[in-house]
Amino acid sequence: MATKFFVLFLPFLFCSFVHSSIELGSSIVAGTNSSWRSSSGDYAFGFYHLRSGRYLVGIWFDKIPNKTLVWSANRDKPVEIGSTVNLTQSGQFVVQPVNDVLFSIHDGTNTTSAVMLDDGNFVLRDSLSNYLWKSFDSPTDTLLLGQTMQVGQKLFSNTEGSVDYSTGQYSLEIQQSDGNILLKAYRYTDSAYWWSDTAGNEGVRIIFNNTTAALYAVNRTNQIIHNLATADIGAIEDNYHRVLVNDQGNFQKLIYPKKNGSEWIAMWNAVTKPCTVTALCGVYGFCDTTGSDTKNYTCECLPGYTPFDPTAPSKGCYLSQAKNLCAANSSAPDNTVEVKEVQDADIPSKGFFFFDLQGIDNTDLENCKRELRDDCLSMAAVFNGSTCIKKRFPIINAIRLTPDTSNHVMLIKVPLVDNEKDSSLVVLTVALILCSLLAVLFAATAIYHHPFCLYLIHKRTPPKPKPKPMDINLKAFSFQQLREATNGFKDKLGRGAYGTVYGGILNLEGQQVEVAVKQLEQVEDQGEKEFVTEVQVIALTHHKNLVGLLGFCNEQNHRLLVYEKMENGTLSNFLFGEGGKPSWESRVRIVLEIARGLLYLHEECDQQIIHCDIKPQNVLLDSSYTAKISDFGLAKLLMKDKTRTNADARGTMGYMAPEWLKNAPVTSKVDIYSFGVMLLEIIFCRRHIELHQIEEGTNGDDMILIDWVLCLAKENTLRNTVIHDPEVESDFKRFERMTMVGLWCINPNPTLRPSMKMVVHMLEGNIEVGVPPIN
Ligand SMILES: *[C@@H]1O[C@H](CO)[C@@H](O)[C@H](O)[C@H]1NC(C)=O
Ligand SMILES: *[C@@H]1O[C@H](CO)[C@@H](O)[C@H](O)[C@H]1NC(C)=O
Ligand SMILES: *[C@@H]1O[C@H](CO)[C@@H](O)[C@H](O)[C@H]1NC(C)=O
Ligand SMILES: *[C@@H]1O[C@H](CO)[C@@H](O)[C@H](O)[C@H]1NC(C)=O
Ligand SMILES: *[C@@H]1O[C@H](CO)[C@@H](O)[C@H](O)[C@H]1NC(C)=O
Ligand SMILES: *[C@@H]1O[C@H](CO)[C@@H](O)[C@H](O)[C@H]1NC(C)=O
Ligand SMILES: *[C@@H]1O[C@H](CO)[C@@H](O)[C@H](O)[C@H]1NC(C)=O
Ligand SMILES: *[C@@H]1O[C@H](CO)[C@@H](O)[C@H](O)[C@H]1NC(C)=O
Ligand SMILES: *[C@@H]1O[C@H](CO)[C@@H](O)[C@H](O)[C@H]1NC(C)=O
Ligand SMILES: *[C@@H]1O[C@H](CO)[C@@H](O)[C@H](O)[C@H]1NC(C)=O
Ligand SMILES: *[C@@H]1O[C@H](CO)[C@@H](O)[C@H](O)[C@H]1NC(C)=O
């Protein structure tokens, strides 16, 4: 009797679980072990614990010991322990991170419940059980059985397997224009390294069929137009299934046996030769296959290049002896460069329409080498037995070819090590600058303990022999002198990150000179000697697009710098002030002037100076409106700060290169990024961030200048923005070129940003500007 009773009631009990839904007002807190599970227990929704200690709001296979993550709401912004995800009483589905602003997953008002379904789909429902929101509609890198993908949706790989789930460098998409399915390294101008050949179809969707586990593409009338992975043999319930764009750029179908599984097994791979994946070995990497085994690959660096991370050669390489080979008066190239040969290797150009420079037909290897050596803009070439094709840098897809099928020779140009002089791109001299800046800007975050920063502290260079003070035409003033000159510090000209600036008049060599006196507030408590040393470095710079330093004061705890006075104030005021929009001609001129000043700081003065804080507030205009960069060399004097508020830091935030935030080497390319943002501000005459919406019906996507410009470039609607400005419209070619230069400069990947030398060449129109990677 008892048994019968149990059997009768079992379905009822089971049912109550199937329909167990998540009520309004429910929440999960990161760090507790609670999650919302599907009825079978196969999937769970909640906070996924990362190795970094932080959490992603996501969905995972809950019965697999390693809890494979299949979806997440915040892959690029993990949250801290204690953060919550709430289905609020008013129906919103929101995440409240600890110490950060709330963000919503779904903003609806009609939600009455949510449920983690048994196929891995998390849904929000209204009172009639219609789905208002589905996790299946916003996939990350994975598709599950029963999931479809359509035009407009994309899958983005992870950065690194189960270590780093943030958005990686590969994407899968169905091309809107023709229905072709493409795999590409989307941050580069990569048209695709794998495609389905389904061009010419409409309404294409990818289906991961839940009755057969087959993966295929259909057209608008649901007819199969391309088979990707075949149906599974045997019962599909025996395995877990997923389809993934992995961190090596492959698109694959994987299964995990439910009973005795120990790992995911790949059943199908879109790419069969890994080295054909763009940028698989990073920038300046070399993808090598061992003999005839094209499935197995290793990443190396091009000859002469050094890996960024010796433990992970796939992260790309750099030239440690980087030199500006195009510099005027650089000595004969024969003595400064060497051309290295790599047999059976190629840098394929298919899909990289802008990476090839011109080809030279009917030539020989020696001539190809000579051509490469003499072309300061090219760093590599490929000789195929008859044609020599010079390659534009960066090189992102150098590969080994199977020996017997080619007679290709890859040529790589490497600057020779110069023992007499210091290499021109010494990064370490700025180590301290970067370090103190990082500390200030991110004092509130864990970046304080940034490994790069620690590394730099230990690596601090021994002091270089300094130029003798008498070489420098620099005056030391007493505090009393400056107090008198500024009339007791009464005439306040402005306030910057480093201190307050006062106007005054000084008697210099019998002449009354108008000066600007900057009272440094946060100078590190370093010895008098160091202060004078830094000031001398600044004083050694002489360029018409830099604000000149006339003298300094270093008395007790007073640290002041005396500059020539710039009558027309800051560029920021000139662009966005009350005077209205400056003329197009003057804006173009100012861009070039700033570029030349920065070029001097980076490449032409004795000791490279990285500015670290390029923005319109730090560019001043003299009496004839010539632009001059100010505040350079000061970052080094900055101290870990107590008074500077978050608001100040955010003011500079928009100009900061993304690598500040990442554990990546920081070089002069941070200035290039800031310059790029500023260039766009100048030519569009718009601040990098607008606090209100610009265009109607755009969801405010246009509030961030660089996103807006990227969007315009992508949609090819740049011209629309200048229709009301005849001055610019009549010079549209130049406007477009400058925009492209700006977009190159703000590339998230520092190695892809041009040098200042290249920027000046491109702005002057001396070299062609390629199409920047836009995505
Ligand atoms: C969560 O689960 C792990 C392992 O099962 C356990 O060590 C930990 O104490 C649990 N944490 C909480 C807050 O229950
Ligand atoms: C989310 O839920 C937690 C715990 O129930 C609560 O403390 C918090 O205030 C809620 N946050 C929001 C934004 O509703
Ligand atoms: C919410 O429900 C109301 C009434 O049923 C309906 O008119 C409205 O369109 C719904 N809103 C959304 C966003 O679904
Ligand atoms: C398969 O997916 C369809 C909708 O795409 C759904 O109606 C059906 O219930 C699913 N079947 C299984 C076995 O999950
Ligand atoms: C999945 O495949 C089965 C058998 O081929 C077919 O009947 C069904 O319509 C397919 N499901 C979808 C959602 O296309
Ligand atoms: C879909 O594909 C089938 C087979 O290729 C073709 O006959 C049909 O016309 C296509 N439908 C559309 C709307 O293109
Ligand atoms: C799992 O068990 C099945 C039989 O139960 C066996 O055929 C299969 O090889 C096993 N797989 C693994 C990975 O051990
Ligand atoms: C599961 O995780 C452990 C520890 O992180 C790791 O050693 C193991 O390789 C993982 N297994 C799979 C199949 O990923
Ligand atoms: C690839 O090479 C590694 C070592 O070079 C070797 O251990 C592995 O078995 C190879 N894999 C294949 C599929 O040949
Ligand atoms: C380069 O050489 C020219 C002529 O030889 C000279 O006038 C010029 O000053 C030199 N420039 C530099 C930067 O040395
Ligand atoms: C070398 O490349 C050129 C241009 O792509 C091509 O016309 C020529 O046939 C190639 N020669 C050999 C030997 O492959």
UniProtKB/TrEMBL annotation:
Domain Protein kinase: 487-764
Alphabetical list of PROSITE patterns matching this protein: BULB_LECTIN, EGF_3, PROTEIN_KINASE_ATP, PROTEIN_KINASE_DOM, PROTEIN_KINASE_ST
Domain spans labelled EGF-like: 271-311
Membrane-spanning intervals of the chain: 425-448
Organism from which the protein derives: Flemingia macrophylla
Enzyme class: transferase
Catalytic activity: L-seryl-[protein] + ATP = O-phospho-L-seryl-[protein] + ADP + H(+); L-threonyl-[protein] + ATP = O-phospho-L-threonyl-[protein] + ADP + H(+)
Protein name per UniProt: Receptor-like serine/threonine-protein kinase
InterPro entries the record matches: Bulb-type_lectin_dom (IPR001480), Bulb-type_lectin_dom_sf (IPR036426), EGF (IPR000742), G-type_lectin_kinases/EP1-like (IPR051343), Kinase-like_dom_sf (IPR011009), Prot_kinase_dom (IPR000719), Protein_kinase_ATP_BS (IPR017441), S_locus_glycoprot_dom (IPR000858)
Homology family: Belongs to the protein kinase superfamily. Ser/Thr protein kinase family.
Alphabetical keyword list: ATP-binding, Disulfide bond, EGF-like domain, Glycoprotein, Kinase, Lectin, Membrane, Nucleotide-binding, Receptor, Serine/threonine-protein kinase, Signal, Transferase, Transmembrane, Transmembrane helix
Keyword DNA damage in record: no
Cellular component terms (Gene Ontology): membrane
CDD domains (UniProt xref): B_lectin, EGF, STKc_IRAK
Positions with a binding annotation for ATP: 518
GO molecular function, one term: ATP binding
Domain Bulb-type lectin intervals: 21-137
Bilayer topology annotation: Single-pass type I membrane protein
Enzyme Commission code: 2.7.11.1
Keyword ATP-binding: yes
